[in-house]
Structure formats: C-alpha cells, structure tokens
Amino acid sequence: MLTPTSTFALRLAGQGAARASIASSIARTTACPYSTASMKQHQASARPIGLASTAGPIARTSAAFAASPSSSIVARVVRQPRSQRCNATATASAAAQQKSAPAPGDKLDWETFFQLRKSRRRWQLGFSVISGLGSFVGGAGILATGIADPLVTQIPLDPFITMGLMTMGFGALGWLIGPSVGSLVFYTLNKRWKTQMTVKEKEFFARIKKNRVDPSVSSVGNPVPDFYGEKISSVKGYRQWLKDQRAFNKKRVSFV
C-alpha cells in the first residue's frame, strides 16, 4: 500500500517526464527548420504574399494592354476575315493607282502634246550635253592613267591621235546615252501624261506616215520637206507641214 509520500513522488516523476518530452520536441523543431511542420507553416504564411506579389503586375499589365487603343486595333484586325483584309488591300492599291492617273477631265489635247514633246526634246538635249562632257572628261582621265597604252601601241597611228580619237569616242558614247536618261527624267516628272503621250505619239506618227511625200521623186530644186516631222512643235506647225507636202507634190507634177 502506497503512502502519501510515495504517491506525491510518483506524480512529480510523471510531470517531469512530460516536461522532458515537450522540451525534446521543441528542440527538434528548432534544430530542423526544414521539418514538415515548419515547411507547412512557412508555405501557409508565404503563399498569399507570393500570389499577391506575382498576380499584381500581371493583372496590371493585362488591364493596361486591354485598355490601350493599339490592342483593340490588333484585335479587330485578327478577328477580321481574310477576304475582307484582301479586299481592303485591293481597294488601297486601286486608290493609289487612281491618284497617280490623270483625272477624267485631264485629257491630253494636241497643243499640250506638242508642248510636252518640245519639253522632252529639251531634256534629252540637256542630258546629252551633260553626259557627253562628263564622258569626255572621264575618258580623258582614264586614258591619262596609261591603262590603254598596250592598245595604243598596237594601232599604226600617232599616239596623240589615237588617244584623241578614243577620248572623242567616250564623249560620243555619253552623247548617245543622254537622250535615254533625259526621257527617263522627263517621264518621271510627267508620269500622269505618259500613257496618253504614248497613244498620241503613235497617232501622230501614223498621220506623218500617211501624209508625207514620196522621197524617191525629190530633186535638188525640190527637196523633201521635213520627212519625219521633227520640226513640228504645234498644231499650227503641223498645218504648215501639210501645206509644204502639198506644195512639194504640186511642184513635182508641174515639173513633170
């Protein structure tokens, strides 16, 4: 039979064992910060903060992109059917062509055609002079370097004459290239009249071919008056050209 003293001692021993077990569990938790309990507590406490910090910028960026006008335009273009996009492209190209083409009221008459033809001839002449002089000077500079000496020694002429002829050949080549460059510049500046000028020019040369005289019956006293119509620069000049053709035929018949 236990006495009160022994019972009190047993109670103290049981309380001490319980306190020792609690202290050991606390020590294990403190010594191992990556335990299951601590990780669960850390995740539970850190998850809301991480989600809030991650979702905040994404949400703000999405809202800003949705509110921007460019995003709405892109969305409309993406949602637009392919046929409508093709039709829009074709309409834009047709509008650009109509803008470059002359208006329906801007029809090229004969007087304007002759003025444009005269202007084109001036452009051709100007570029012929420029390209001829440039080629002449450039050719002289190239020949002065001695690059053509082997060729000059093989020609049975005086070297100065040979070099002069070659330099003049460079100038003639530039003179022949000039009209092509002048026509290109002229049609670039007068793009709206290019098609109509081509049509008018064909019609003009057809009239010249039809009304000009036969050059085989010409003579010293009765030369052919402007066989190709190069001197015609106006409607009045064309009428005068027709009169000259009739005068030639009349003079030929009267002499026969």
SSE blueprint and pairings:
Layout: H1 4-31, H2 36-67, H3 69-79, H4 82-100, H5 110-144, H6 149-154, H7 159-189, H8 194-211, H9 235-255
Describe, in short, the structure shown.
This protein has 256 residues and is an all-alpha fold. The chain has a domain at 107-190.
Q: Please, could you describe this protein's structure?
A:
There is one protein chain. This protein is an all-alpha fold. The chain has a domain of 84 residues. It is 79% helix and 0% strand. It contains nine helices and no strands. α5 runs antiparallel to α7. The protein starts with a helix and ends with a helix. About 11% of the residues have low confidence. It is found in: Mitochondrion inner membrane. It is a multi-pass membrane protein.
Globally, the shape reads flat
Series of secondary-structure elements, N-terminal to C-terminal: HHHHHHHHH
The residue-averaged pLDDT reads 75
Helix run count: 9
Termini separation: 178 Å
Strand content: under 5%
List unreliable stretches of 5+ residues: 29-55
The SS-based structural class is mainly alpha
CA-based gyration radius: 50 Å
| Tally of DSSP β-strands | 0
Q: Sheet bearing the most strands, described?
A: none
- Helix percent reads over 70%
Features:
flat; 256 residues; 9 helices; 0% strand
